[in-house]
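G., the chain you wanted modeled:
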Amino acid sequence: MNKKHLQVLSLDFSVGVPSCECICILQPEPDTISHDVLLESLEPHHDLSQLRISYYQSDKYPGWLGNASFSKLTSITLYGCESKYLPALDGLPFLKELIVRNMKFVQRIGHEFYSHPAGVKAFQSLTKLEFDGLLQLSEWSGMDFGDFPRLHTLSIKKCHKLRALPLVPFPSLETLNITDCGSLNIVPVPPLLDLNLCSSHRLCAVSSCHNLTAVTAVSSLHSLTSMVIEHCQNVSAVSSFHSLTTLEITECQNLIEVSFLPSLATLKIAYCPNLIAVSSLPSLATLKIASCPHLIEVSSLPSLATLTIVYWITQR
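Predicted structure as tokens:
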């Protein structure tokens, strides 16, 4: 495929026709050509900037995918591919965005995801990474210190079997979004965020992680400023985030208390029926609580300027 001016390419191996600006519908006849052979033969021009591959059915990826000669390739999306592994893409020098969605057969992300030689850091330009709908993914490992040096947005959604996040820091991470990852039991896993975060806005959003029991800061999380926690049934307490200024908690059935957040200025809590206490928040200026019928203590809030407490009888 030698079209010099092609910059955006979508290769779709499904039967149906998707709605996309620049697409190639690739559906080989049975017993004639396999997906891996077909994709190997479709190497695009090296000026390509965006690539999407959908519904690819092979564990073998083409040799050109991830080749450093694609120096202008900045965005890759893998969607609905029936492969057990992710391709090694860290050799792309200017890849900024990697989105992996609905790859339901991927069980682990390990060393096969990183092809760089010793001493070279992986994904040096990547700023956004998303894993969504990797239903069998249980392990993410193989990272070294210094990998993903510019990653500022990490989103992990519907990875129901994922047990833990990598145990090395993402030094530039600003936004962490974890949704519907039912096997995670502690978030964030230290030291997911590094001590040297330079952004003024750092957000952690956690939603529908039903086995999550603790949301507690460690030293590597001291710069976190904003957090949203939703639909995490077993979270019982949130505490010890020293720089946290904004916190929203919704529908956490076993939440009992929120305390010891010295910089917290705004707190919103709703539909937490077992919440008992909100206390020891010296910087809190705005507190809004809705439908928390067992709340009995609101104390040690010397800076409080706005207080709203609403009890609704009906449940969401």
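Residues 12 and 54 are 5 Å apart (CA to CA).

Shout if anything looks off.
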